[in-house]
Amino acid sequence: MKTPNKPIVLITAGPTREAIDPVRFISNHSSGKMGYAIAGAFLDQGFEVILVSGPVNISLSHSCLRVIHVNSADEMYAACQQYFHVAQITIFAAAVADYKPAQVHAQKMKKSAHEFNLPMVKNVDIAFEFGKIKRNDQVSIGFALETNDEEQNALKKLYSKNLDLVVLNSVQDEGATFGHDTNKITIINRDFLFQAYPLKSKAEVARDIVMAAIQLRQKQEIPIQA
Question: Could you write out the DSSP letters of every residue in 4-30?
Answer without folding.
Answer: TT--EEEEEESB--EEEETTEEE----
